[in-house]
Structures are given as structure tokens and as C-alpha cells.
Amino acid sequence: MINTFNESLLHEELKQFYCGETGLTEVPVEGSICDVLHEDGTVVEIQTRQLGKLKRKLDKLLEHHRVKLVYPVARNKVLETRTRGGRLKSRRKSPKHDTVYRVFAELTGLWSLLGHPGLELEVVFADILETRVADGTGSWRRKGVRIEDRSLMQIHGTETFRTLGDWAGLLPASLPDEFTVKELGQAGAGTHAGKMAWTLRKAGVLELCGKRGNQFVYRQASRT
């Protein structure tokens, strides 16, 4: 297989899901290998993290193709830890539940493409199984337990963003017309509020309109 050596099981499962019965996988397009190519010329790229690394590839693809960029968000996550020999050590549900705002942790490198007429970003809300191995080679934060793979358990639904108006639709309805990052976080964006505000300002969805103490104040740009 081409270009699949470092793929996670989650990536492969999503690739097959978006391929369907008529798409082709691992196809050379515009000088690079693409995850899925459909009959109408639409390219599907699946990225489970670090979306910004696709910027140059997307720039090239968007010259002649429509592109669907797929990003999975773990609504629920099951953590399964095994010993070095493969014996199940523990299995538990993660207390963390990601929301659509998780995507902003990955968008700072792609802000210039938000609203591009040829690009749509589809967030997939899924239950994900994270397999870990307690072999002492993982990070100190996980006490030496390393993440071996991630796989798909269930897809709950998707949300697709095409226009800047779609991105503006993520601004919580409870926000005042002028707001700070703190207020954006409290309204629903949580810890992703800072990157959300930065990304949407760079993309032209938000604009700065002043300061409140040492906090910047934002409002929605009129053209969105």
C-alpha cells in the first residue's frame, strides 16, 4: 500500500467510510497521494491531528479540485491499556468529551483557507477506542504508557463548514455583541476560545473593536 505505513486504524477506517462503493483510495493527484478520489473529481483528505501540515498540499489540490477535509472529534473515548505482552490491564471511559470547538486547536495553520469556495471541512463526531501499551516508553504524563493506536467505535454525526458564515454560526447565541475571549470560553468554547478568536479574526469572521482592561474585545465582522 502507498503512503499508509504510519496510518492509524482510525484514519484507515474513516478513509474506507468516505470512499464508499465508487471512490478510489491512495490516488496520486497533483503530485501527492490523496486519501480518496471520487468520480466527480472531489478529493477527500482525512487528518486526525495537525491539520496545518496539509496547508501546502491543500493549496495545490484546490487549484483544480474540490476538497473535503475530514477531522474526527471524540465525543466519547474508551481507554484500553495492555501490557507489553498484550494482556488487557485496564479499560475505562475517559472523563473528557470533546465538542466541535476542538477543531480550533488545529486550525491556526489553515485560517487563510476558511471560506475557500473549493474547500469544505467536515467534523466527524465519534466514539473512539484508544489503545495504550504499558511498556515504559510513553510520556511521563502517562507514566510511561504509550498510545499505540486509535480506532473507530461509532459515528454519531457530522457538521460541515463551507463558508465564513458557517464558521460564524459557531459563535454561541448567548454572547453579547462585543465580547472577550473569557466570555467566549464561558459561553461554550471552553479552553479553545483563544484559538477560536484568533483564527476567526484572521479569517475575517471577527474583528477587534477595543480593549477592556488587558483583554481584547471582539465582535462579528459585518461581512459575515
Structure description:
This protein is of the alpha+beta class and 224 residues long. It has 2 domains: 9-162, no CATH class; 171-224, Arc Repressor Mutant, subunit A (Orthogonal Bundle). The chain has 5 helices and 9 strands. It has helices at residues 9-19, 55-61, 164-168, 181-189, 193-203; strands spanning 24-29, 32-37, 43-46, 67-83, 88-93, 119-134, 145-161, 206-212, 215-220. Helix 4 packs across helix 5 (193-203).
Topology readout:
Layout: H1 9-19, E1 24-29, E2 32-37, E3 43-46, H2 55-61, E4 67-83, E5 88-93, E6 119-134, E7 145-161, H3 164-168, H4 181-189, H5 193-203, E8 206-212, E9 215-220
Parallel strand pairs: 3-4, 4-6
Antiparallel strand pairs: 1-2, 2-3, 4-5, 6-7, 8-9
Care to give the gist of this entry?
This protein has 224 residues and is α+β, with helices and mostly antiparallel strands. The protein is built from five helices and nine strands, in the order αβββαββββαααββ.
Shape designation: globular
Strand content: 35-45%
**Mean pLDDT, all residues:** 93
Radius of gyration: 19 Å
Helix content: 10-25%
Order of helices and strands: HEEEHEEEEHHHEE
Query: Which structural class should the secondary elements be placed in?
Result: alpha+beta
Question: Number of folding domains?
Answer: 2
Task: State the main characteristics.
224 residues, alpha+beta, Arc Repressor Mutant, subunit A, 2 domains, seven-stranded mixed sheet, two-stranded antiparallel ribbon
